[in-house]
C-alpha cells in the first residue's frame, strides 16, 4: 500500500468492484455516519483503496465511506479521506476483497461464507479460460488456507452463494438480508429455495419478510382432500430435494474425499502416489452435477397433466431443460 496525493475527484467508481460487498442497510449507513461525525477525531480514519488501471484509479475498498463523504460528509465539515494505492491487477484485487479483506471488515459469518463461495466460482470460471487450469479442489484449498477454514466449508460456501445469487435474481433485497445475516436461512433452505420458479422464490421471500419460514404457506389440505395440483407440487418438491441431496454428496463429499485421499502420507513420510487426475475428476463431477440439475422437475407435463405420456416419458412431469 502506498499513500498518494490523489483526491476524491481523481477516483473512478467501478461497477464490478462496487458490487463485491453488499449495500449497507439503513441502520448500517446510520451507524457509519455516527461513528464518523460523533467519533473522537470526526474524520474518516480508514483510507480509500484504489488500483491503477489504464491510467485510471478505480476504487476497490471504501465505497460506503466514499458515498458518505460525497453525499454528506463534505457538507458537514468532514475532511476528505486519504487515498492509498494497491499494487494489484483487477483479478488480484477481486480475490483480495473476497478472500482476504472480508475477515477484516467485521463481516458476519454469512457474508464471509458468501464471499468465499463467490471467490471460488469466479476463480474457477477464470481458470477454465487458461491453457492449464487449476482444478476446483486446488482453488478451494487455496481459499481455505487463506481464509482459515476447511476445504469442505469452501465447497459448501460455493453452493450457498450460488443459491443466494439465484434468489437475488428475483429479490435482491432479500438476498442481501440473507448475506448480511439479517434474515437467517440455512444452507439446505437456501439451496431448496433457489430451485423454485421465480414466482415460488418471490412467495418464499415474502414469507421470510412476514417472519415465517420460507416454505410456510399456512395449513393446507392433505391426503385425498388436497387438490391435485397441491399433491403434484408436493411430489415434485420431494423429487427436487432428493436430487439436491445427491448433488450435495457429489459436489462436496466426493470431491473433498478425493482431495484428502490424494494428500495422504505413506508411513515412510512420503506422499502416497495415487496419481489421481484431479482436473479430469473435477470435470466429470461438474458434468454429473449439471446433468442432475437439468433433471430436476420444472412442473407438471401440460400434455398429460400427470397421467404420463411420450413427451414426459411417462413420468407426468417435465425436466428443467425438457
Description of the molecule:
It is built from twelve helices and six strands. Helix content is 52%, strand content 6%. The strands form two sheets. The chain has a four-stranded mixed β-sheet. Strands 5-6 form a two-stranded antiparallel sheet.
Features:
single chain; 322 residues; mainly alpha; Conserved hypothetical protein from pyrococcus furiosus pfu- 392566-001, ParB domain; 3 domains; four-stranded mixed sheet; globular
Q: What would you say about this model in short?
A:
The protein has 12 helices and 6 strands. The protein has 322 residues and is mainly alpha-helical. A hairpin with an 8-residue loop joins strand 2 and strand 3.
Topology:
Blueprint (H helix, E strand, L loop, with lengths): L1 E2 L11 H4 L7 H12 L10 E3 L8 E3 L1 H9 L11 E3 L4 H11 L8 H19 L8 H12 L3 H20 L1 H8 L7 H8 L3 H12 L18 H35 L15 H18 L1 E4 L16 E3 L3
Parallel strand pairs: 2-4
Antiparallel strand pairs: 1-4, 2-3, 5-6
Structural class: mainly alpha
Q: Treating each run of at least 4 consecutive H or I residues as one helix, how many helices? A: 12
Using the CA coordinates, give the radius of gyration: 24 Å
Kindly report how far apart the N and C termini lie.
53 Å
For the residues shown, what is the average pLDDT? 84
